[in-house]
């Protein structure tokens, strides 16, 4: 009897081992947030099983540490693996596999942020950015010409060797079949993340993200969307930001808001959907995009920041003067309030990074006290592009309109107190469309 029970146990153990060995990495690995002593790696498996990351300091005898996590259907077989007890300014060789023995591992490097404060000048680094990633799925797309294309743009971004990538919303496009089920939302993320053209970029550098309407819900969706809990959960499953939401608030109107620093630059990632009340929708209700609590947190954080440039990522255009579609000009009182608070608090070096419009451009506004605010729109990556040349944005910097698929980079360089930011816009093949250098405000 004992022998029979042991045989059954061994059979089930071997069955579990066999099933787990058939599980593979379906998407990723993706490098998520990276700090001085900690980093996060994301991966998605083809079914239920384990995924492991082994890592050791590159160039030294391998004494790897291993972190593993189980993947389940409820989490779309995704995993977030946190690498801890790292050393600042150090490169680690990482390998990701679906078993602890590292068979068929995918190998890549991560480099932690340097501990430069009180030691040397801030490091030079490059940020890549873009928005509006549409990946075709013919049976669920609208009939006619495919809306997405030029997926090679992701390899082009890698060729520019960015230190981090910022995804500026509409990173997926939920379809009509997706909105009304949690499984539909997870399918859309899974389908988008699985294309082979994305793999190299996701493992090349840390990836940070915000959302816009097509990640949040239907087109032009606002805070009334009934299933925003599903899309919020999915966003957190498929991205690996350092945090989600403002801890001081007591409601879910800031579902994805976060902040992080890279070198001496502060990045503020905003949620422009959860608290949104669209203009002219509800009688006697003021339109809002960010909401009072998020704005209060943002201004307080900007005032506290000592960064020479304060970079704010938000889905829709902030400075475009045209009251059309979903520009912030459709919410003029709130836009004026934010600009007034920036001016009153003498907050310098503010740069908005935006997407949404399927056309790239740079807008610039000089406030009455001399402070200059910028809005760099990088859109689209793979979605259909439009020509906004007839849209009379009075704040558009001449020569910066790019009515084709594009992405941008920000290069930060220079000594402490003399930092520079170079904006560059590229087409999908990597040809420079325009560039502008901005010096640290005095």
- What is the helix tally? 8
Give the CATH topology of the largest domain. Purple Acid Phosphatase, chain A, domain 2
| CATH superfamily placement of the largest domain | Alkaline phosphatase D (PhoD)
Proportion of β residues?
Answer: 25-35%
Query: How many E strands?
Result: 19
User: Which CATH architecture of the largest domain would you pick?
Assistant: 4-Layer Sandwich
Structural class: alpha/beta
Topology as a string of helices (H) and strands (E): HEEEEEEEEHEHHEHHEEHEHEEEEEE
Rg measurement, Å: 23 Å
Strand order of the largest sheet: 10-9-8-17-18-19
What distance lies between the first and last C-alpha atoms, to the nearest angstrom?
A: 84 Å
Identify low-pLDDT runs.
8-19
Calculate the mean pLDDT score and round it: 93
Give the arrangement of secondary structure elements.
Elements: H1 2-22, E1 25-34, E2 39-45, E3 49-57, E4 65-71, E5 78-83, E6 91-97, E7 106-111, E8 125-130, H2 153-159, E9 164-168, H3 182-193, H4 196-204, E10 207-210, H5 213-216, H6 228-238, E11 258-262, E12 265-269, H7 292-304, E13 310-313, H8 332-344, E14 350-354, E15 361-366, E16 372-377, E17 406-413, E18 420-427, E19 432-439
Parallel strand pairs: 8-9, 9-10, 12-13, 13-14, 14-16
Antiparallel strand pairs: 1-2, 2-5, 3-4, 3-6, 6-7, 8-17, 11-12, 15-16, 17-18, 18-19
Helix pairs in contact: 2-4, 3-6
């Amino acid at each position: 009897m004992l022998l029979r029970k042991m045989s059954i146990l061994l059979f089930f153990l071997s069955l579990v081992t066999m099933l787990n060995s058939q599980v593979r990495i379906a998407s990723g690995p993706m490098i998520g947030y990276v700090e001085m002593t900690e980093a996060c790696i994301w991966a998605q498996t083809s079914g239920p099983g384990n995924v492991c990351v082994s890592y050791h300091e590159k160039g030294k005898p391998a004494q790897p540490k291993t972190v593993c996590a189980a993947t389940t259907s409820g989490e779309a077989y995704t995993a977030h693996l946190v690498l801890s007890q790292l050393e600042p300014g150090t490169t680690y060789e990482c390998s990701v596999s679906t078993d602890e023995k590292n068979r068929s591992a995918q190998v890549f490097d991560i480099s932690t942020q340097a501990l430069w404060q009180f030691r040397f000048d801030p490091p030079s680094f490059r940020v890549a950015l873009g928005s509006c990633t549409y990946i075709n799925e013919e049976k669920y797309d609208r009939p006619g010409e495919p809306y997405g294309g030029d997926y090679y743009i992701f390899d082009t971004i890698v060729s520019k060797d960015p230190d981090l990538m910022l995804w500026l919303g509409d990173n997926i496009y939920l379809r009509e079949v997706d909105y009304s089920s949690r499984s539909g939302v997870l399918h859309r993320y899974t389908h988008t993340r699985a294309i082979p053209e994305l793999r190299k970029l996701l493992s090349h550098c840390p990836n940070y993200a915000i959302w816009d309407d097509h990640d949040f819900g239907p087109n032009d969706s606002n805070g009334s969307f009934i299933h925003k809990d599903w899309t919020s959960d999915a966003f957190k499953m498929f991205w690996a930001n350092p945090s989600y939401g403002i801890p001081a608030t007591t409601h879910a109107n800031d579902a994805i808001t976060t902040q992080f620093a890279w070198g001496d630059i502060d990045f503020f990632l905003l949620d422009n959907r959860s608290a949104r009340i669209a203009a002219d929708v509800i009688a006697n209700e003021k339109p809002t995009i960010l909401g009072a609590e998020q704005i209060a947190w943002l201004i307080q954080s900007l005032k506290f920041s000592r960064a020479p440039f304060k970079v704010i990522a938000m889905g829709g255009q902030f400075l475009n003067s045209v009251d059309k579609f979903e520009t912030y000009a459709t919410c003029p009182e709130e836009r004026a309030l934010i600009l007034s608070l920036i001016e009153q608090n003498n907050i310098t070096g503010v740069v908005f990074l935006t997407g949404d419009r399927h056309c790239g451009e740079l807008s610039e506004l000089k406030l009455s006290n001399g402070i200059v605010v910028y809005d760099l729109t990088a859109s689209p990556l793979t979605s259909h592009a439009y020509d906004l040349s007839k849209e009379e944005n009075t704040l558009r910097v001449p020569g910066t309109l790019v009515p084709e698929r594009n992405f941008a980079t920000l290069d930060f360089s220079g000594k402490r107190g003399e930092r520079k930011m170079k904006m560059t816009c590229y087409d999908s093949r990597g040809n420079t469309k325009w560039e502008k250098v901005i010096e640290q405000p005095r």
